[in-house]
Amino acid sequence: MDYPKIIKKQHESFIKFVYASVMAKEEDVKYKLNDMARFKYRHMVWAMQDAVNAGVKFNMDFDYNEIAKIKVETEDELIEVLKDDLNQNIALYEGIDNPTINRFRSDDEFFLEEMNFFDVEGEITAFNESKELPGVELSEESKSALIFFLMEETFKEYELITIYSYLKVHSDIAVANSAFTDLAYDSIYHLKRFADLAAKMGVLTLPRPIPHEKYENIGVVEFLKENIEEEMDAEKQCLILAEKIGNKYLKDFLLFISRQEVYHGELLQRALDAINK
Ligand SMILES: [Fe+2]
Ligand SMILES: [Fe+2]
Asked: Are 147 and 203 in contact (CB under 8 A)?
């Protein structure tokens, strides 16, 4: 069984579905694509865990050209790209009969079927660079600051999801493991919210693969210390933007995210304390 290939495909699939869920316009479609994205994330992590258990090495690289296939003009085309993606995944499972792959196959086949019922006919506007947030008046300065923030932070959230997931499957310390799981899921939520705003403003940017030195051969203590800093920095970036955004809802949203970042620091600190005990 080619674990690295299956992991890479699930990874690309996860990215495509998260971004597609913010690109789509219909609430029902967004909601279902987001659920599928969550499952593709789980598929990726389960495949990673199986690879670790089998002693197979892998990395978190993906093919940018593969995920860039979602940069299409219409929602119809987007759904076709996603179906093609799942078909590619299913093809990889051929001839394999084990509980993990059987689960993947069953999920993906149902998702394919579910997508046949999607009623989509809109244009994709997530990349049109309109730089306007529909229904919200913002000064030019606030708009630029928000766009810069969204581009930086969507990438950082993606990076954290990837690194936390990698460390989770390579760690056998229960407290750290549980913290990494919570952090990855909170980061998926942040990524989704930031990407959603970026898509509405037509400035959605896709992630790039992460350099291996960011996650390979890192001691867990060193990693935790570095990432407490990262989380504090994320809090600070939210606070700075909240002060200058000039819109109550966006300000409250940013403050809400900033307090979650504080809690991320706390989760990492607890993991650190458990390890140092
Ligand atoms: Fe975050
Ligand atoms: Fe965070």
From this structure: yes
Structure-token pair, residue 181: 């799981």
pLDDT, position 220: 85
- Ligand sitting nearest the alpha carbon of 189: 1
Q: What is the CATH number of the domain that holds 158?
A: 1.20.1260.10
Same domain, 86 and 153: no
- Cα(93) to centroid(ligand 2), Å: 34
Task: Using the mean position of ligand 2's atoms as its centre, give its distance from the Cα of residue 156 in Å.
Answer: 9
Residues 19 and 40 in one domain: yes
Give the number of whichever ligand sits closest to the CA of residue 267: 2
Backbone angles phi, psi at 217, to 5 degrees: 55, 35
Centre of ligand 2 to C-alpha 190, Å, is 8
For residues 11 and 104, state if they share a domain.
Answer: yes
Number of domains in the chain: 2
Tens digit of each residue's pLDDT (9 = 90 or more) over 118-132: 999 999 999 999 999
Residue 59 has pLDDT above 90, yes or no: yes
In order, the DSSP letters of 81-139 are HHHHHHHHHHHHTTT--SHHHHHHHHHHHHHHHHHTT----PBP-TTS-----TT----
> How many whole angstroms from 115 Cα to the centroid of ligand 1?
30
Q: Which domain holds residue 270?
A: 126-277
Ligand 2 centre to CA of 183 (Å) is: 7
Residue 135 shares a structural domain with residue 101 = no
> Domain ends where: 108, 124, 140?
124
Q: Which two tokens stand for residue 103?
A: 């689960």
Q: Which ligand is nearest to the CA of 231?
A: 2
Q: Say how many Å lie between the CA of residue 79 and the centre of ligand 2.
A: 31
pLDDT at position 257 is: 97
Q: How confident is the model at residue 165 (pLDDT cuts 50, 70, 90)?
A: very high
Closest ligand, as measured to the CA of 262 = 2
Q: Within this chain, do residues 30 and 153 fall inside the same structural domain, yes or no?
A: no
| 76 and 198 housed in the same domain | no
pLDDT digits (tens, 9 = 90+) for 14-29: 999 999 999 999 999 9
Ligand in closest contact with the CA of 154: 1
